[in-house]
Amino acid sequence: MTAAAGRRRCTAGVRAVHAGCTQITPETPAIAGPGGPDAARQPRRNARSRCAPPRPSPFSKYPACLAAGLALLGLLPAPAAADPFEQFGTAMKYGLPLAAAACAADQDRLEDFALRGLLQTALVWAMKEYTDAPIARRPSGQGGGFPSGHTAMAFFGAADLAGKCFEDKPLAGAATYGAAGLTGWSRIHAGEHTPQQVWTGALIGISFGAASFGIGTEGASVSVGMRF
Q1: Which pTM value belongs to this model?
Q2: What integer pLDDT is reported at residue 52 of this predicted model?
């Protein structure tokens, strides 16, 4: 009896393997050999989905990246006569919102973040422009000091970072709020704002930073962060 005659006949969808019949399934790749399909052509998607590690988020080590970015902002050129504490406040005004924007882009919520930032900026500008009362006077006597725009921007970035990027990292969230608080203090130290103007700016910044309008998500929410 020849080898071909001794080989068992298999029905459709079944192939001969060592004189037996084996069902071909997507989970069982074919054994390469004469008369059988190449193993490389068999579906391997299920195996990859079970074994491939998830793509690491670029923000898994974000606190360290944030610290490095803010440190670089502090090294930007500034007038020789500028006060270092005032320089720090200016760096946080831009650094904290930029870090929050990078995180928002990574989390696919940049549109929501941008809308909240624009609305906050418009509100601060309108209050500065149209508030004509003693509370709007700066320590120097000039107007347009209510509220503090530096403080509002810094706390906007800090609240977004703490509530949406560092919700499981309370120390990192506290650090962002601390940097924003120092920004407000720097404005008082520089003689640009009164404590009332700084506190108002902080309240506006936290309100818009912690909020979420629900663009691209299921609904609006508020996330303050710093969970312990």
Answers
A1: 0.66
A2: 44
